[in-house]
Amino acid sequence: MLFYHAFHETFIFIVFHVTDHQGNKITDSKTIDYIEKALGPKGQITEGSVKTWPGKRVGVHSIGDHTAIELIGRDRPGLLSEVSAVLANLHFNVTAAEVWTHNRRIACVLYVNDDTTSRAVDDPNRLSVMEEQLKNILRGCEDDEKAGYTSFSMGFTHIDRRLHQMLFADRDYEGGGLTNEIEYPPSFKPKITVERCEEKGYSAISVRCKDRAKLMFDIVCTLTDMQYVVFHAAISSDGPYASQEYYIRHMDGCTLDTEGEKERVIKCLEAAIRRRVSEGLRLELCAKDRVGLLSEVTRILRENGLAVSRAGVSTIGEQAINVFFVRDSSGNTVDAKTIEALRKEIGHTMMINVKKIPTTAKEPEASGWAKTNFFFGNLLEKFLA
């Protein structure tokens, strides 16, 4: 539960009632200490200057010992495999990555370094070759009309935040009817309404949908990207459902007065909620890190007719942890024969866990090794520590 209130548009008061991802009370002192430091007076992140290149599909910048690569384009089966193969062939080692797909669009952020020195790559000629090859891959599945909608900003920010910005700039929310996305049960489809609060001069946005981690983050990020300011908010949950209310104005002080504005906000929030929702099969792979591992794994997925709808890659010490949400190339559920073929092909070199992500509130079925939870989006902490 959350209560948010802005006082005189200068100070804010926020009360959070939080649990861990399993619904338990947080008692670990290290976790509490981390939260206090992150939210304290010295916990704010200052973003650098931001530059924008309309129409640019590939962006590159360096963070510490890693080079960050940003890609956006039309999604298709095998695209992630082709991207990782290019990087491996050019002697780039992928140490972390996150990939989102929505409405047949794909956005990904990859952190790479030189496979020999384990340092960030700053050779302009080498980076230029890499960019051109990645552009060729994306250009092969991009029509000219849609290419005009892409844009990149080169600034340091939270990785999930960046993925939201990339897909919002790409207007993935306009892709309704062109997607193969999962049909959610009616009870779990987002219900979003926009009303005018005459007394206070706000627009009131009400969201009710299936509850999940980072739901509020996704909604607030999108409202911010749309240049809206949240003055008051109330967040609550009831079983598997979440109810959220936001009282907002545009940065210029205006409310949402036209039906077109309201419809656009509803579409954008629906897209923000669904970008992170993945259903089908969740593959968790753990192996000793080595150059070309991501290329090998994604090649095997492609050869078995699997399409990746979302992915998270991280490296902890010498261990690489890869999480893929997959369906078959037609968007259907992966059959048991394919799962068994995967186990035989890669089970001897890495640990594999397969989970079916249900459409209901039941716990997912698991098999393989012990239940393990991997979180996306916090990859920069390891690099900047």
Automatic annotation (TrEMBL):
<comment type="function">
    <text>Binds amino acids.</text>
</comment>
<feature type="domain" description="ACT">
    <location>
        <begin position="68"/>
        <end position="152"/>
    </location>
</feature>
<dbReference type="InterPro" id="IPR045865">
    <property type="entry name" value="ACT-like_dom_sf"/>
</dbReference>
<protein>
    <recommendedName>
        <fullName>ACT domain-containing protein ACR</fullName>
    </recommendedName>
</protein>
<keyword id="KW-0677">Repeat</keyword>
<dbReference type="Pfam" id="PF01842">
    <property type="entry name" value="ACT"/>
</dbReference>
<dbReference type="InterPro" id="IPR002912">
    <property type="entry name" value="ACT_dom"/>
</dbReference>
<dbReference type="InterPro" id="IPR040217">
    <property type="entry name" value="ACR1-12"/>
</dbReference>
<feature type="domain" description="ACT">
    <location>
        <begin position="282"/>
        <end position="359"/>
    </location>
</feature>
